[in-house]
Structure formats: structure tokens, C-alpha cells
Amino acid sequence: MVDRAPARRARASFALAAALTLGCEKDPPAPTRAVEPASASSVARALGLDAATLEAPSDPPSPAGDVKAEVERFTTLDACVTEHAKTDPLVGDALHAIGYDTFLRDACRVLLAMKEKRTDACKAIDAQGLRSRCEASVAMQQATPDACPFETFEAPAGGRDARCVAAASRDPRLCAGAPRAERAACEALVLRDPARCGADAACARDASRWRTALPAPGTDGRAPLVSRAKLVVHGTDGTPEPPVVETDLASDLARGVVLVEDGAGVHLTLGTPRETGTTIFAPTPLQRARLSLSIVASGDKPAEIEHAEVGVPGSATLVLPGARWNGRVKIGKLENTRGGAVELVLEGTIGVAPHAYAIRAEVATFARDLVRVSAAGAGAKKR
Questions:
Q1: What are the two backbone dihedrals, phi and then psi, of residue 266, each rounded to the nearest 5 degrees?
Q2: What are the backbone dihedrals phi and psi of residue 146, each rounded to the nearest 5 degrees, phi first?
Q3: 173-211 as b/e: b if 16+ CB within 10 A
Q4: Hey, which end of the chain has fewer CB within 10 Å, N or C?
Q5: Could you report the per-residue pLDDT of 313-341, keeping only the tens digit for each?
Q6: Residue 344 host element (H or E)
């Protein structure tokens, strides 16, 4: 039997420390760097605990089956519902308890949409998550990445589901656009290789289920999609030098960027915006420098800054518009295609003494998705 007492004591100590810390704070905390959460296994290793004591138990995955064979066998919606109606009584009780009396019919609509090769058939599905899964299934089957659902419902600027885009594009390199925790599952799906899943049973199930439905991706020897970025900050006009002059920002751009095209041009955002105006809060001296930059590029015109945030440890976070700025953005490459290169340099001076800085940011990343927004800004059109 596993002794869970150490884990309980560790969690209790952490909760007490957090409560005491929060109770002592009088000023709002400075913004912190946005990072993806650590996995339970990595936390367990750091604490010297059994990962089973930290991970919430989950149901085992259902049999993988073969989605291509199921689509080929599909005849009608009613026939599909009848075929699958003999569910376990306990599962039936649960579905009725949550009020999802059309669950089987909605599940069969996924096969209907794939059979008819149209995402419109997904619209009748009640649950948003299942409806998005249906749209992704059709998009992956038909190699139409523009039909993939958006990562955040009705938020085109955030881009489409990266796993769907990679599979529909038949390009495993685009899995670099997925969150770190989902990249292995994305690569296993696109490469049709369950072995890449390791111990992730749900990942292996999806890769096996779609193995015959997706063609083998091309092996053209293209280089993997990676991001490089650095920010150099110097004090100017008598402002002291920051604790760290050069900061590597590659991790902030590991997923690439989304190119959003509208009547004004092509918009893109580097990093994660956190402020809506000028702010008095500053990163602590122990934090690293931070950059968030939103720009719009239009034809041969110079790129315009729509919003920018420069966080200097031990100083104020400087925000545009608002702070004094004298500089420019120079675009080296902006390839308007998924996986295309995006290269730019931001250079200038920002702020006034005693918080004035000369900054230079060099960025080389990739476009993980392309979105065309209608003139009214109400949604996205297919590219």
C-alpha cells in the first residue's frame, strides 16, 4: 500500500504557506511570466513523491476502433443510434442525470458529418465540445485546415485548434503550434504513430483510431518549426541599467503566432498582453524582462504598433500607447502561409527618466495559423 501521508502533508504545508503569503500582501502583485503548468509527474519528482498521489484518477480510454471503417459502414442517423443504444445501464443513468438525452444521436452526427463531408452537419450537436470535435474530424478527414474549430470559441484572433490544423494540413511540423502538453499527442496523430504517446493511453487511442483515416504525411525534409527571440534593454537618459540586459524570449513564442488579416492589413501578437493602459506595477528584480507586441502590417507601409508592453525588472512596465516612444518595427519576413517565417526587429527608446530605456528585440518565429476576419469583425472567413 502506498503511504499517502507525505503527499498530504506536502499539500497542507503548501496551502498554509500560500495563505500566509496572501494575507501579508497589501499591494497588488506584479504580473508574472505566463508559463504552462508543470505536469504532475515532474512535480512529484521534485518533491520525491509517488506521482499517483498527485494525479486525479481518470477513466480508462474506450476501445480505439477504426474511424474510417465506421464512416464507411454508416448508413443513417437512426440506424447508428439504434446500433449504439445498448449502453451500459449505469452510463445511461448518468446521461439522463445530466440531461443529455440526445447524446447518442449527437455522437452519431459526427459520423454523419464525416460521411457527408460537411461541417454544417455538426451544427445540430448540442454540446459545444462535441460540436468542435465533429468539425475537427471533418476538417482532418478532408484536409481543410480552414474548417478547423477555433481554439477559443468565437475568438478568431487566437487561432484554430493546432492539432486539427496540423492533421488537416498533413504537416507534423505544425504540431509546434500546440500547447506543450499536447504536442506529443498531435505528432502521434499526424504521424500515425501511437508509440510516440508513451504512457498516455488517450493519446495512443486517438492515434490508433485515426491511423487508417489519415494519409501518411510527406517526408520532404523541411526543417522543424522553431522560434528564436531576444530582448536587449539598456538604461538611457540617466536611467540605471536593468539587472539583466539581455533576455531570451524564445519560450514565449514557442507556439508561433497567428496572422489575422482584415481590411487594415495583417495583425500579429508576440507574447501575452497583460495591461490595458499605463501601469505603476513593475516586475520584481528577480523576474526577467518581458515583451508583448501587437502590430499591423499593410503592404509596403511601415508596420504600426497597436499595443506594446515592456516589463523591466525593478522598474515600471511601460505600455504603448501611453508611454513615450521613439522607434520602429522593421519586418524582415512575413510569409502569409501556415508554417511560414515571421521575422522582425523592434528598436527604439521608451519611457522618460528615471524609467527610460533603449530596447532592441529580434524575433524569428513562424505562423501557426492564418485567419481572415470579415470587415465587420464579426467572424472569420475561409482562406
A1: -105, 120
A2: -65, -20
A3: bbbbbbeeebbbbbbbbbbbebebbeebeebbbbbbbbb
A4: N
A5: 888 789 999 999 999 999 999 999 999 99
A6: strand 341-350
